[in-house]
Amino acid sequence: MHIEIGGFFGGSTSVSVRLQEGHISYSVSTTELFGTTIDSVNVPKKISDAWLTSLAKLQIKRWQGDYSPDFAICDGTQWRLEYKEIGKQCRHISGDNAYPPNWDDFIEVMDRLAPEAALIDAEQLEHIELNYHRLRQMNPESTAPNIPSNFIGDYSEKLIIYRKTETLTYKKGIGSGCLVTHEYYVRDGVRDLLDNCESYFEEFNFTDTNSDDKTPRLSIELTRHNGNQTIKCYYNRHGLPDEWEELINYLTPFLSFYGLFGELFDFPCL
Which among 172, 193, 180 has a CA at the least distance from the CA of 128? Predict the structure, then answer.
């Protein structure tokens, strides 16, 4: 198997993989400035078997021969793949700013085998988790059954965006006995959401001010391809990161589009 990925105006990276007598070897080559060449890295049998199993699940033999966007793009990413199974003809597959549905899974499988190729950006966001917490007194006018109007308890909200499962999960915790969860699975949409969120965290600066225990708190957990980062602050205009408002204004339309209620809650006219 040989995969080459590059931009119209930039360099390219190629990875070649060969299976011989049950063992895998691979080589890497880049044409960028101070390009890299890695020749014939032999992979242990146990790792080879596990990697081949992951590759087989991708069903590359079912990919189309060509992937192109609906409209012309002058720049972007072009790629080509030569894939040959034992006893079968070599397949030639290519793409221009368009990819098979499981392309990200393929790149992840390739990255596990040949991390030197750096096919995945080290700063790529894999997971975002926003945790909000405060002590809350119930509003007497909106008190739930069996909960006293003067009830004070923990109130929390959690937003989890996870690239691998392509899910966004929004949870609300009211006291110790009530948890409300909304989960959204949006193929490609969640991954695009994470990619677009990256810019908000590039300069996520804030000043953590002193406050009391009654002030709501926020923690932000970021998982990138090359490591984790945790930010903790008070949830007020002095404690929040400078880019917080922009981030929330970006996330809100995504949640609003899919909404919390559907047609089940619309009383039929007929």
Answer: 193
Write the pLDDT tens digit of every residue in 225-253: 888 988 888 888 888 888 899 999 999 99
User: Which fold would CATH assign to domain 2-117?
Assistant: Mago nashi protein (3.30.1560)
Where do the structural domains in the chain lie, given as residue ranges?
Answer: 2-117, 125-261
E-assigned strand segments in 101-166? 125-137, 152-162
> How far, in Å, CA of 234 to CA of 218, rounded?
6
Alpha helices in the chain (DSSP H): 45-57, 103-113, 189-201, 244-258
Identify the three-state secondary structure at position 243. coil
Cα-based angle 173, 176, 181 (whole degrees, multiple of 5)? 30
Side-by-side strand order, sheet with 77-83: 37-43, 23-30, 12-20, 2-7, 77-83, 91-96, 66-67
pTM as predicted: 0.76
Residues 6+ away with beta carbon under 8 Å from 166: 185, 186, 187, 188, 189, 190, 191
Closest by alpha carbon to 48, among 20, 87, 89? 20
**Using a CB cutoff of 8 Å and minimum separation of 24, what contacts does 152-156 make?**
156/131, 156/132
Is 125-261 assigned to CATH 3.30.1560?
yes
